[in-house]
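HUMAN: Ready with one sample?

ASSISTANT:
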Amino acid sequence: MNKSLYLFLFLALVCRLGTAQKTVLIEKFTNAYCGQCPNASIVIDNLMEQYPNTIRVNHHKPVTWIDNPLTNQESIALWDDLGVNGVPQAMIDRAPINGRLYTTVTNLEQGIVDRVGEEAVVSLDIQNLSYNGVERELTFSLASVFESLPSIADYRLTVMIVEDYVRGVEQHSYYNDQVGHPLEGLGDIIWNYTHMDVVREIIDGHWGTEVSFPENIQLGETYTNDYTYLIPSDQNPEHLRVVALVSPYVEGDYLSRQILNAREFRINEYGLRTSVEDVKLDLGFITSVSPNPADAAVYIEFSEVPQTIMILSNEGKVLQELKPTTRQTVLNTSHYANGHYNLIAQYGERTYGQSFVVQH
């Protein structure tokens, strides 16, 4: 049985370490009503295969004649600040190309080549990642370590929530009749198009979190910023990524905000249970858990004998797994530390849970 099935019942704390490595961020400005845009996605796909140390996100353009479910207020603000005058366009690490931050797809490769070999001066890691499936609340911390400072500046951490495999929004295409093109025959409007890399939210603003770091940054010291994202019901937690980047912030000067480093963290790679479709959040066949709080022992009663009982700490660690043969079970808690715990009872496809407290 996959124990990660139960992780939605608590805040499962995990931490991964990463190494400082320069990653190039491609930010594409796009639109579901742009006929050239799906071809630009294919071009960028090929470039990312050629230069694997890259990340892509898509900022969808707001449109005036229809509600666009693929855009968000912070991406709209980014469009407005930069005055993007057509799609498809893209930024490479927010570095100037021919005097402006965005360029056409034909210029992207040179922009990637210019940036991909640069040294990473800051590393980024995700920590304390947790997901509450009941509240649909994603919480995490981002740890930044500066190895060097190219200049004295107000450095900011920008955090994006990005979703893949988004369906339900059609995509216009100019390539339906182009022989040999990957989009040939799919229609002038591709009704079942799958949108990837959709920026759903930019937490704390499109230019980053103010006061992300102290005024006097110390090299080698870890700086941590905490974030919370309430996932709307139309977004799939299993398809979400956290994309983080560090850049200087120079008031009024967009050309001086080049990204020092970026990283992406896919939620489904961290062992979190992000679906509660088959789980009932009630006591079910658990009729009694007492005393609560408990000291040396907890007495558990069921109306039917469960197949399996699991006891998990509030941090998500499986402490015990039992296979009871009667409707009464005594759990020895004398060696448990004071704190909150979760009792999970499995009945075939049905899962029931009850929390309890140990207080010596």
In short: The radius of gyration is 25 Å. Residues 1-20, 275-282 have pLDDT under 50 and may be disordered. The chain has three helices and 21 strands. Residues 37-50 form the longest helix (14 residues).
